[in-house]
Amino acid sequence: MDPTRSILLTDLYQLTMLQAYFAEGMEEPAAFELFARALPRDRGFYVAAGLEQLIELLEQARFTSEELDWLRGTGRFRSDFVDWLADWRFTGDVDALPEGTVCFPDEPLVRVVAPIPEAQLVESRLINIVHFQTLIASKAARSVLAAPGRLLVDFGMRRAHGAEAALYAARASYIAGFAGSSTVLADMRWGIPSFGTMAHSFIEAHARESDAFEQFARAQPGNVVLLVDTYDTEAGAETVAAIAPRLAEAGIRIKAVRLDSGDLAEHARRVRAILDGAGLPSVGIFASGGLDEHDLAELVAHGAPVDGFGVGTRLDTSADAPYLDCAYKIQEYAGLPRRKRSEGKASWPGRKQVYRHRDDTGRFAGDRLTLASDPAEGEPLLVPAMRAGRRVGPAEGLDAIRARCADQLAHLPEGVKRLRDPEPYPVEVSRSLHALATEIDRRPH
Amino acid sequence: MDPTRSILLTDLYQLTMLQAYFAEGMEEPAAFELFARALPRDRGFYVAAGLEQLIELLEQARFTSEELDWLRGTGRFRSDFVDWLADWRFTGDVDALPEGTVCFPDEPLVRVVAPIPEAQLVESRLINIVHFQTLIASKAARSVLAAPGRLLVDFGMRRAHGAEAALYAARASYIAGFAGSSTVLADMRWGIPSFGTMAHSFIEAHARESDAFEQFARAQPGNVVLLVDTYDTEAGAETVAAIAPRLAEAGIRIKAVRLDSGDLAEHARRVRAILDGAGLPSVGIFASGGLDEHDLAELVAHGAPVDGFGVGTRLDTSADAPYLDCAYKIQEYAGLPRRKRSEGKASWPGRKQVYRHRDDTGRFAGDRLTLASDPAEGEPLLVPAMRAGRRVGPAEGLDAIRARCADQLAHLPEGVKRLRDPEPYPVEVSRSLHALATEIDRRPH
């Protein structure tokens, strides 16, 4: 059983609520929206991601006979309810921010309009997919901004939280502008360029570091990146310099060396000098080892001669902010707008739309959150993604999504992109939304 | 394609190293060990978890013909190497800490001894599985210690990092002593008790809160937990009190109310008073909403009348420490011990074993890290898990693992269990290990 495709990857309360809706015959259309609340500390924006996997999920979502049998066997559900689940399909509409769109608190990332038993059941997995990819795309964009022009590679698979997190982190960081990932399956599945070198164990398994380098180079002459810090970084670089002529005679070019520990700026300078001194100016320096966007910014600011970075654990876990405060909330049922009023968690009611305004140079100047039914103010940010349970148009290619993200980041005000203490981006809430919220608060309940 | 079962869920460098080992004919046995380095801030111990999924992975690991074709198509690998991968199987030995064992930095969680192309290839996914479950079991144990006797439920599925993280978090928190999870698939797959109530959307979809409560109760009379904070927590509790007699006439008992926002201690006291005043002392109070172990400890310390807690996002993401500093390192190749010496990352060489010493009362008094070949000092903590690629003995049941963890936590010194600034637990490194490290450092490389 593939857990990534099971409809029972959900919270039990979705099923208990569905049983109640079934018993009451409640199946009017509901509108739910997924949005994030406040930004994490030192974050200026989000990057929307994960919509493609959500669409794939909704198109194929159904209960298998094995799952239905299991539900029956729990004794928790009425038999006629389980029979009804056998025919459950997602037949609703989805509007969403295209992947790679920069967005802000309170702005819907996804809106689902469907009979309430459909819109409700998909909640848990919808959040699970879109939250995580948005989390990682938002985090990865910071490394992209911190190290412009450097080759960035996602190295985080091993400490990502499970299989799907590893795959999705590769995808989300690629969308944000990474050059690729070390995760092979992300290459096979989505064509995300895969990068890889050697581990310390490879060096240690050989009697001498120089043997390890030479054997590795001869085994994959097209991709020679040598890890030089297993014993002593500068000594490792000297060894590279010593074997380079022999390899060159065999037609093998050393592409780069990798540094993975110690003071990377200092080591990079010394290694650069060693390589240049040996007539190897074209051998690049790639750095890794517990890095995040702040480390990258510092290395770049100090002029460390590093051509590329492997960014791993702290990217794939979004270590400084491992979750976003997001929610999927009912905004309308049976034509009537709704609003949660729990302390500290009140949300804007109704189906919403976002319009982005630009200054004369094309730079983003501010967003307006309106009711979807308000008069349009230019191009709406939320666009149709599914109608009647089917995808609208062909799937977007990853490179188109990646290009969108790059364009969005290029038009974001500099202050909003700062890694520390970013400027807030203006998001205005329309008068119509304020008025609707006030009206709903007056309703009895 | 089920990504949780693909052998290509790995780092590219595993394949490039394997190609080099293949080219060199290197296939002597290697011993690798997975261990954690320093504990995260305010953490006193780890709880080992994930071994069962690792064994399942290693038993079934192989390249499918689709994967082999894809590898061939990349043009990156020699054709004879890809042919050789077709027969790749894991035929090695695994020794490990049984799941639920409390452990400490530098202690191996897993040791793999296998021909180097086998022990190497499994690295990335081995870490990915064992790291995450150990991370979550270690985090969940803190909630268990913080709220003794309370019903604890994992509510984190939606913000867990993808599908597998959600499933594994349910399993790891159950091992640590949680009563269960809201994740239905964890119940279907492993029999982990599932818990669930209702969402705010259910209340909002009804014209009146009281209708929502009553309809829900009638639809699942066996599991009536009512969420009272959608509009006003105390008013919600009054509504529960008002409908209880009508439900009682229909033979329906309200099991609990759930609070999800605001000052939970204060609301719990007021709601308790309302329920008691209405003659409903048996209706429990369940609290949720962004909680972690520190919130639980505070609520318990202040005597808040809360009978159970839903712990979600901050558990499933291990929000205060979303990763462990762990590594899978080669310790021996072809009979010769090995040691990485990278700055700040040096590790203990050789195959290791751990012995735990107890005081007169049975309490853990300290561990000793030794060479596996040293004379035994009592029961070793690492035990055989696989031999020649096959599981040793039957799979351990989850409840046995959970009981082990409870027993381990009960014997851990109180100071080590503190949620803030825990006492360090003594782990001594044997003289034989010190001597071996010194000897290796003298070797040329």
Give the tags.
homodimer; alpha/beta; nicotinate phosphoribosyltransferase; 18 strands; TIM Barrel; 2 domains; six-stranded parallel beta sheet; globular; 17 helices; 445 residues
Description of the structure:
Chain A folds into 2 domains: 3-137 and 321-442, nicotinate phosphoribosyltransferase (Alpha-Beta Barrel), CATH 3.20.140.10; 141-316, TIM Barrel, CATH 3.20.20.70. Chain A has 17 helices and 18 strands. The model of chain A has no long low-confidence stretch (mean pLDDT 96). In chain A, helix 6 runs parallel beside helix 13 and helix 7 crosses helix 15 (398-410). Chain A has helices at residues 12-24, 51-60, 65-73, 79-85, 116-121, 123-146, 163-176, 184-190, 200-205, 209-219, 233-249, 264-277, 293-301, 313-316, 398-410, 414-417, 431-442; strands at 29-36, 46-47, 93-96, 102-103, 108-115, 151-154, 180-181, 225-227, 256-259, 284-287, 308-311, 326-333, 336-337, 352-358, 364-371, 383-387, 390-391, 427-429. In chain A, the strands form 4 sheets. The first copy, chain A, has a 7-stranded antiparallel beta sheet. Chain A has a 6-stranded parallel beta sheet with strand order 7-6-11-10-9-8. In chain A, strands 14-15-18 form a 3-stranded mixed beta sheet. The first copy, chain A, is an alpha/beta fold. At the A-B interface, helix 1, helix 6, helix 7, helix 8 and helix 9 of A face helix 1, helix 3, helix 6, helix 7 and helix 8 of B.
